Amino acid sequence: MPNKLAEQTSPYLLQHADNPVDWWPWCPEAFAEAARRGVPVLLSVGYASCHWCHVMAHESFEDVVTAAYMNDHFVNIKVDREERPDVDSVYMDVTVALTGHGGWPMTVFLTPTAEPFFAGTYFPPRPRPGMGSFRQVMEAVVAAWQTRRAEIEESGADIARRLAEAAARGPVAGLASRPTSGVADELTPQLLDTAVAGLSARFDARHGGFGGAPKFPPSMVAEMLLRHAARTDDAQSLQMVAFTCERMARGGMYDQLAGGFARYSVDATWTVPHFEKMLYDNAQLLRVYLHLWRATGAPLAERVVRETAAFLLAALRTPQGGFASALDADAVPAGVPAAHAQPEEGASYSWTPAGLRAVLGAEDGGWAAEIFGVTAEGTFEHGTSVLQLPADPPDAARWAGVRAALAAARATRPQPARDDKVVAAWNGLAIAAFAEAGALLDEPAWISAAEDAAVLLRDVHLVAGRLRRTSRDGRVGTNVGVLEDYGDVAEGLLTLHQVTGDPEWLTLAGELLDVVRARFAAPDGGFFDTADDAEALLRRPRDDSDSATPSGQAAVAGALLTYAALTASAEHRSTAEETVTRFAPLLSRDARFAGWAGAVAEALLAGPAEVAVVDSSALERLARLGTAPGAVVVTSGPLVAGRGAPGVYVCRDFVCELPVHSAEEVRRQLGVKIAT
Length: 676
Known about the structure:
By secondary structure, the protein is of the alpha+beta class. Strands 1-3-2-4-5 form a five-stranded mixed beta sheet, sandwiched between helices. Strands 21-20-22-23 form a four-stranded mixed beta sheet, with helices on both faces. A hairpin with a 7-residue loop joins strand 6 (264-265) and strand 7. Helix 17 (424-440) runs parallel beside helix 19 (483-500). The longest helix has 21 residues, at 149-169. The radius of gyration is 25 Å and the shape is globular.
């Protein structure tokens, strides 16, 4: 019999709708039920494409005995972290504070007043060295609740109080009191030089990226470094990005057959990925590789842009014109009888030499094994390998045929499930990427895809002037938009306006930023992650550091700066500068966690360039190919109004130079690097 998740829109919650666990969605009624019964709440947080979430679900939540114990002793709440990043943020802070680490699935035990008293992540069905079983953990919690309830409730209240106090100080504020190099009070060239030096010290010169395993794609840091290289002519910054991007694209984290990147690499060499493919990663990386191509003309970068765009359009585009959230990490292995089918991570993507020969024949199969690094020992599990491409094959025609044949064969295997909810923020990232890439690489269909996604957000996600976080099948969800939704959507719309000249997108972006300034502003500067009329949690979330996507504050700062450049609004520019200045201590200390704030800071120091192209279509694309950090380029709108003489007008800080009319001058003023 379905539980209380059957009417939800989240694919993750719907995955659990038939569990024997009597799951509740996050709602006041669930906590009221816990109070009525006098039992604690078991909060389980995950997301649809999470491998270990599936594992724990199969081991525990699908088990009738375990479910019966959960139902008898707890009110059980299931949360999709992608729909409710505010809930996830609050209780992830608790989990990290109590255990020293975080991750998903996240398991937190709460009082009926939502105060946490015990937390963890994945719990196995049977004890392991150093880790109790899920049943043992629940039994210990129940015993403590029944014998020491007053003490537990006091502990939960104390944790909640300390969490609120820490949030009031804030991670950036906390860093500000620590010793730095003396350049962390304001945005200066010296601060950004210090930030880049810190990144250089953490750079893996052998394999690319920053730090060790696991390695995540450093999208926001790469954007910062590309802008720093453009502003300062620092060759090392550009080289760190170029080397990292090449190693990622040639490793197993990149899908060598269909394009697109997996979530992260479990090793330091980009060989074996965690196989889920997320919209937010691929939208950001599409733009990173586009900007790398713009800075270097590298054919590999252009190929990755085209293949990643093709992947997104083929695999994640929804019938309504938006982009779905993710492809799962797991799939049922080929050849497994349905009665015994159990999804395994990476089953769709791994190969053996024999598997290659079965598709391609002995000669091409052996050649493909050599090209892709598929060995008898394997690089992954059970003697299988993830395809890599250490170098471009010498025979391009043969390579194209082999790649097409393997892609077709792989398509006959069971495929990963798709999380088809549309998340506003991540679609904003996709809109920006497709609009800009379409303009730079002359792909009108990509610009049309960006427009379709923007129309979906406008017509479905915008309700009474406010954004909703998600939709599915054209049906808007109930969860309100958070700060990153407003910042990333505004960024996407502003990019789309520059490419299409449609004033509607500029106007709508301005309206979204008005909501941010009215509803999300913090009294000490910057912004909260939730609006002032959103549901009250233990604390009002305010995360300064980037995670898989830009922090909400950094995203909004970037959008405010772009809007200011497009409209000559000194007020928006001032707010952008005040917001990004909050990140100065974090940039000075460890820019890996403030990459997008660093990118916005680079644009601030560079101007950014405000470029109006008037009746000069021959120079328009050249102007868009400029590497000037954060530059805006338009052919209509406020920047163009009143400029009668044809030419390219380059302005900074609302002060313009004389119009130029030659390609050479445009190249010089905007830092165009590649031949056209």
